Amino acid sequence: MEMKKESIERVEKIERLKRDKNAIILAHNYQRAEVQDIAEFVGDSLELARKAMETTSDIIIFCGVDFMAETAAILNPDKKVIIPDAGAICPMAQQLFADDLLVAKREYPDAEVVLYVNTLAESKALADCICTSANAQEIVDAMDASTILFGPDHNLAYHAQKTTSKKIISVPEHGLCPSHHQIALEDLIKAKEAHPGAKIIVHPECIPEVQDHADYIASTSGMVRICKEVKDAEFLIGTEVGLLHRLEKEAPGKKFYPISTTAVCPQMKMHTLEKIEVALEKEKPEVVVKKEIMGPARKAIERMLEISQ
Ligand code: SF4
């Protein structure tokens, strides 16, 4: 009971601080339920990038992982972007460093580079275009070159390759998301046996075998849209479990089952109400991107936003 009171008081304080400081909270679909509930906007990487560009707030409290907050900072050089816990570092983004990309570019000089938004800002600065899980197929197809260097997610490259005649080369060869990698085909088969009438929706960060058995492959916000639009009442969800909170809120009356309950991203869960309150109060830790990479990284992100309306 006491905890609940504390929690209510903390939420009230956060709301007050937001008003006083003209701040906005943007939260990714994988955030804790209580963090999603106090955010002005909850969405996937593409939606959050767009929201970050649209906002008139002076401060953006970004509840996501490092590369997402960096993207918001790159798109908003005049705003203060704050990440409540600076330790929220995406392990997938750490799988592709700028030096590795330079080696690949030398090996394939005619190729264009399309990088998943889940990359470090230094790597983004070397890309021709950025993509998200919502638009990877569209972006790859819109490129001029016939060979595309694509990284760091090998599974998203598999998904993009399905709808293009371009040659996609993964950099690194086997980059992956540790949380989605846990969702195994056996989990999917078991879940389907338990809920035979449920539609299967999985994220393109899942392994190819899981993608191949799905009724739909979609980004997290794509999943929300599909679950709301189709008339089916039961769904097996193949992504980080945090999305179920949003699904249950936005599609009440429908049933959602995670294909794997262990598909949890610990980095996404690092932001708490307590850390958000402190971040708002102290206006730190601020996300700072090196000046020399701001321009080229922004160009690659803006190219994506132009192609993918
Ligand atoms: S879910 Fe995977 S890709 Fe997303 S932040 Fe976590 S580790 Fe990175």
Q: Layout of SSEs?
A:
Elements: H1 2-21, E1 23-28, H2 33-38, E2 41-43, H3 45-54, E3 59-63, H4 66-75, E4 80-82, H5 98-107, E5 112-116, H6 121-124, E6 129-131, H7 136-142, E7 147-151, H8 154-161, E8 167-170, H9 178-181, H10 185-194, E9 199-202, H11 208-212, E10 216-217, H12 220-229, E11 234-238, H13 243-250, E12 255-258, H14 273-282, H15 291-307
Parallel strand pairs: 1-2, 1-3, 3-4, 5-6, 5-7, 7-8, 9-10, 9-11, 11-12
Helix pairs in contact: 1-14, 3-4, 7-8, 12-13
Iron/sulfur cluster binds next to helix 9.
CATH class division of the largest domain: Alpha Beta
Biggest sheet strand line-up: 2-1-3-4
Question: The biggest beta sheet, please?
Answer: 4 strands, parallel
CATH topology of the largest domain: Rossmann fold
Helix content: 40-55%
If you compute it from the alpha carbons, what radius of gyration comes out, rounded to the nearest whole angstrom?
Answer: 19 Å
